[in-house]
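User: I'm putting together a teaching handout on how sequence relates to shape, and I'd like one worked example. Could you take PD-(D/E)XK endonuclease-like domain-containing protein from marine sediment metagenome, show the sequence you're using, and then write out its predicted structure as tokens right after it?

Assistant: Happy to. First the sequence, then the structure tokens directly below it.
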Amino acid sequence: MTQFERRLSHTSLSSFRRCKMRYKWGYIDNHAAPSSPAQIKGGVGHVGLAAWYPAIANAKTFNPAGDIALKAASDKLAEYEREAGKEMTDIWDDIAIILERYFKWAIDADDFQVQEIEYKFELEIDDFILIGYLDGIVQRIDGTLWILEHKFTKQARVKHLELDSQLSLYMLAARASGFDVRGALYNVIRTTLGGIAATEPVVRLPVYRNNEGLQQIAREIVLQMKEMRTFHEQNGKDAYRNQIMDCSWDCSFFNPCLAMNDDGDPTPALQLIPIKEYKK
């Protein structure tokens, strides 16, 4: 069978598993809803950390490394502001504090040297290509290689990490790219300003996967991607909704979904969400 022309990602895989209708609207109809404040914080924060690690490696001191990283983060926020047509000073006030706390914490906590930052991968499995970015590849003082993964979130939820599909995919990608990673260093970066975040701004945990487990995960990913290919070939005609309690706060298609409950027609609400151009 010929290779599926659409490149997939962790985000598209997880969207398909979560809700077939949301996937259809986002990946077949190509609607692109504006980023939420939490997504903007995460995007700006990732850019800041991507600038921090090369800067601190070169400068060796908090300044100017911190200033360089904050400038990169500020520039990224300016992109979001231009897209939204409004200033986001409240987001900047928060993310500047969050990043500065991370920098001060990392000076003492980091026990590694950075090998790669924002490493772009293309992982070919069966007839499919998966794409994505690893936040970092680092080498610890014992010589082992690890993925460095950042998560900006209000609460340090970590119980799911042993089954986290994103980390599993990233470990598959890292090893296929020639990095013999031992596991992932998972940074939970708290986005609240007070409370425990003021004294414990980051929780870092090592996460492991063995090769046998990753082989099973790869087989399951292929099964899902085959379902996705069929879904695309049929233009998502059998899409259905998965309505759960999280939809009201974490789904950008909440309003079209709600419209279906009102009169069965999501079209007016969908017309308010821009269409993006899909790039192969």
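A couple of points you could highlight for students: The chain has a mean pLDDT of 94. The domain at 112-209 is CATH 3.90.320.10 (Lambda Exonuclease; Chain A).
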